[in-house]
Amino acid sequence: MTHTKKADDLAAALLAAADTAAAQKENEGTKAKELLKDPAVIKAAGIDPEKTPCKVNLIDNVQFKSSGTMGDYLKMEWMASVTNPSQFVPIGTFRPGDNKGEIGAATHKIGDKNYILILVTYTPTTTPANPL
Protein backbone atom coordinates (compact mmCIF):
# COMPACT_ATOMS: atom_id res chain seq x y z
CA MET A 1 0.00 0.00 0.00
CA THR A 2 1.44 3.34 -1.08
CA HIS A 3 0.23 6.85 -0.31
CA THR A 4 -0.40 8.63 -3.64
CA LYS A 5 -1.50 12.04 -4.86
CA LYS A 6 -4.01 10.26 -7.11
CA ALA A 7 -5.77 8.74 -4.08
CA ASP A 8 -5.62 12.10 -2.23
CA ASP A 9 -7.19 13.82 -5.25
CA LEU A 10 -9.96 11.20 -5.52
CA ALA A 11 -10.76 11.63 -1.82
CA ALA A 12 -10.87 15.42 -2.17
CA ALA A 13 -13.07 15.22 -5.28
CA LEU A 14 -15.50 12.84 -3.58
CA LEU A 15 -15.80 15.08 -0.52
CA ALA A 16 -16.36 18.17 -2.68
CA ALA A 17 -19.03 16.37 -4.74
CA ALA A 18 -20.76 15.21 -1.53
CA ASP A 19 -20.71 18.77 -0.19
CA THR A 20 -22.28 20.08 -3.40
CA ALA A 21 -24.95 17.37 -3.23
CA ALA A 22 -25.64 18.11 0.46
CA ALA A 23 -26.55 21.69 -0.48
CA GLN A 24 -29.30 20.53 -2.85
CA LYS A 25 -32.85 20.59 -1.56
CA GLU A 26 -33.57 16.95 -2.50
CA ASN A 27 -30.67 15.81 -0.28
CA GLU A 28 -31.76 17.76 2.77
CA GLY A 29 -31.35 15.54 5.82
CA THR A 30 -29.29 12.92 3.96
CA LYS A 31 -26.30 11.76 5.98
CA ALA A 32 -22.86 12.44 4.54
CA LYS A 33 -21.99 8.72 4.47
CA GLU A 34 -25.06 8.05 2.35
CA LEU A 35 -24.14 10.83 -0.09
CA LEU A 36 -20.75 9.16 -0.69
CA LYS A 37 -22.56 6.06 -2.00
CA ASP A 38 -24.84 8.04 -4.34
CA PRO A 39 -23.99 7.19 -7.98
CA ALA A 40 -24.51 10.86 -8.98
CA VAL A 41 -21.98 12.01 -6.36
CA ILE A 42 -19.49 9.33 -7.41
CA LYS A 43 -19.87 10.39 -11.05
CA ALA A 44 -19.56 14.10 -10.16
CA ALA A 45 -16.29 13.27 -8.39
CA GLY A 46 -14.97 11.81 -11.64
CA ILE A 47 -14.76 8.29 -10.26
CA ASP A 48 -15.54 5.39 -12.61
CA PRO A 49 -16.21 2.44 -10.26
CA GLU A 50 -15.17 -0.08 -12.94
CA LYS A 51 -11.86 1.59 -13.82
CA THR A 52 -11.03 2.89 -10.35
CA PRO A 53 -12.79 0.80 -7.70
CA CYS A 54 -12.19 2.07 -4.20
CA LYS A 55 -13.16 1.80 -0.56
CA VAL A 56 -13.83 4.83 1.59
CA ASN A 57 -14.23 5.66 5.26
CA LEU A 58 -15.75 8.99 6.25
CA ILE A 59 -14.67 10.08 9.71
CA ASP A 60 -15.61 13.03 11.88
CA ASN A 61 -12.63 15.38 11.98
CA VAL A 62 -11.79 15.06 15.67
CA GLN A 63 -9.30 17.14 17.59
CA PHE A 64 -7.55 15.41 20.49
CA LYS A 65 -7.08 17.62 23.53
CA SER A 66 -5.19 15.09 25.66
CA SER A 67 -1.42 14.95 25.68
CA GLY A 68 1.16 12.66 27.18
CA THR A 69 0.82 8.91 27.41
CA MET A 70 -2.99 8.88 27.67
CA GLY A 71 -3.32 11.23 24.71
CA ASP A 72 -0.99 9.06 22.63
CA TYR A 73 -2.98 5.97 23.60
CA LEU A 74 -6.29 7.59 22.60
CA LYS A 75 -4.85 8.67 19.23
CA MET A 76 -3.51 5.17 18.50
CA GLU A 77 -6.80 3.56 19.53
CA TRP A 78 -8.74 5.97 17.31
CA MET A 79 -6.42 5.32 14.34
CA ALA A 80 -6.79 1.55 14.74
CA SER A 81 -10.58 1.83 14.74
CA VAL A 82 -10.88 4.14 11.71
CA THR A 83 -8.47 2.08 9.59
CA ASN A 84 -10.20 -1.22 10.35
CA PRO A 85 -11.26 -2.73 7.00
CA SER A 86 -14.81 -3.29 8.31
CA GLN A 87 -15.25 0.50 8.49
CA PHE A 88 -14.73 1.01 4.74
CA VAL A 89 -17.55 1.15 2.18
CA PRO A 90 -16.82 -0.11 -1.35
CA ILE A 91 -17.39 1.95 -4.48
CA GLY A 92 -17.40 -0.52 -7.35
CA THR A 93 -16.22 -4.11 -7.05
CA PHE A 94 -13.13 -3.93 -4.90
CA ARG A 95 -10.85 -6.92 -5.59
CA PRO A 96 -7.25 -5.70 -5.60
CA GLY A 97 -5.63 -9.14 -5.86
CA ASP A 98 -1.97 -8.61 -6.76
CA ASN A 99 -2.52 -5.03 -7.94
CA LYS A 100 -0.61 -2.28 -6.12
CA GLY A 101 -2.84 -0.59 -3.55
CA GLU A 102 -2.97 3.16 -3.10
CA ILE A 103 -4.20 5.15 -0.11
CA GLY A 104 -5.09 8.80 0.22
CA ALA A 105 -6.97 11.16 2.47
CA ALA A 106 -8.61 14.56 2.38
CA THR A 107 -10.49 16.87 4.72
CA HIS A 108 -13.53 18.92 3.78
CA LYS A 109 -16.75 20.30 5.16
CA ILE A 110 -19.99 18.66 4.14
CA GLY A 111 -22.74 21.00 5.14
CA ASP A 112 -21.58 22.47 8.45
CA LYS A 113 -19.52 19.50 9.66
CA ASN A 114 -15.80 18.78 9.09
CA TYR A 115 -14.81 15.34 7.87
CA ILE A 116 -11.75 13.29 6.98
CA LEU A 117 -12.09 10.80 4.14
CA ILE A 118 -9.69 7.89 3.84
CA LEU A 119 -9.75 6.34 0.37
CA VAL A 120 -8.10 3.08 -0.76
CA THR A 121 -7.91 2.24 -4.46
CA TYR A 122 -5.93 0.37 -7.10
CA THR A 123 -5.75 0.29 -10.88
CA PRO A 124 -7.12 -3.01 -12.19
CA THR A 125 -4.93 -4.72 -14.75
CA THR A 126 -5.97 -7.00 -17.58
CA THR A 127 -2.92 -9.20 -17.11
CA PRO A 128 -3.55 -12.32 -15.01
CA ALA A 129 -2.10 -12.05 -11.52
CA ASN A 130 -0.25 -15.39 -11.84
CA PRO A 131 0.31 -16.13 -15.54
CA LEU A 132 1.39 -19.66 -16.38
* Helical content class: 25-40%
> What is the β-strand count?
5
Shape designation: flat
* Annotation field: number of helices: 4
Helix and strand run: EHHHEHEEE
| Protein structure class | alpha+beta
**Rg (CA only):** 16 Å
User: What amount of the residues lies in strands?
Assistant: 15-25%
Terminus-to-terminus distance: 26 Å
Q: Which residues sit in consecutive blocks of at least 5 with pLDDT less than 50? A: none
Mean pLDDT: 89
Characterize the main sheet: 5 strands, mixed
**Biggest sheet strand line-up:** 1-4-5-2-3
What does this structure look like?
- A hairpin with a 2-residue loop joins strand 4 (101-110) and strand 5.
- The protein is α+β, with helices and mostly antiparallel strands and 132 residues long.
- A five-stranded mixed sheet has the order 1-4-5-2-3.
- It is built from four helices and five strands; from the N terminus they run βαααβαβββ.
Question: What labels describe this entry?
Answer:
single chain; 132 residues; alpha+beta; 5-stranded mixed beta sheet; 4 helices; 34% helix; 24% strand
